[in-house]
Amino acid sequence: MSWTSRTPRLAAATWLAGTVSVVSMAVLTGALLVVPLHAIGDIVVLLVQWCGWTEHAFPVLPPWTAPRLVGLGLVGLGLLRLVQVGVAVTHARWADQARHRHDVRLLGRFHPRLGIYVLDHTRRGAFCLPGKGGTVVVTRGALRVLQPAELDAVIAHERAHLTGRHHLILTAAAVLARAFPTVPLFAVGHEELRRLVELAADDSAARRSTPRVVAQAVLRLAAPPSPLLGMANTAVHQRVIRLMADRPPLSRSTVLGRVLLVGLLLALPLLVTTIPALSDLTDHCA
What we know:
By secondary structure, this protein is mainly alpha-helical. Helix content is 69%, strand content 6%. It contains eleven helices and four strands. The chain has helices at residues 3-6, 8-32, 37-49, 66-107, 140-145, 148-163, 166-179, 184-208, 211-220, 236-244, 252-285, and strands spanning 108-111, 116-119, 126-129, 135-139. A four-stranded mixed sheet has the order 1-2-4-3. β1 (108-111) and β2 (116-119) form a beta hairpin. The radius of gyration is 24 Å and the shape is globular.
């Protein structure tokens, strides 16, 4: 079993850090078409140190050339594409969630003891609807087949999605994957994050019950893929095998190495901009 399956939250953090680093470097590349690298570093260092501004703190813009204009045009198109896709994906997801909320209000009823909504539908399913307070929905068909312990595991799984803000993670990943489909990191990262958030929610449910109970619940609710975060919508076979398998924890050194990697990925754009300016920092602030 891979380390990503053994520690899904750390693996998801690594994917997110890598994505943030790539996007930040792309933005930095666009900035370098306008402002020299050393000038960006000087500004960042001065903001951190707050050792005073002089006329040397402001960058001198290089002359405009055709390559720089073309580069800025490409960066602008990239940003426009990102905003366009971001609006489209976000609007589609909001509309989908609004439709499901309408169905829940129309066909469902609140279960005060469980703190969930029960949807009057014969299909077996459970999902969560993010929003104010978050909503966990379980169909009547699911209630008929789930044992009490399995139902508790299902509810814990869905609440883990809500508390972990997994819908925001997947929305951001979907925007990047759709906006730049030729970038393998974004396409693969989106699919991997979908898998990892399910594994993380499984682990949260297993801590409330047992891995075996969670695996049984996943099998009972096995359903075709859905755009919503549902208990059994992603990698059912793999999740069941993982829950039933012996998963020794990663060693402390391995976890520390992965955490350092996350920190390095997040700090890389800042290091690239500030290192060239560090040599001048002492003279400037003396």
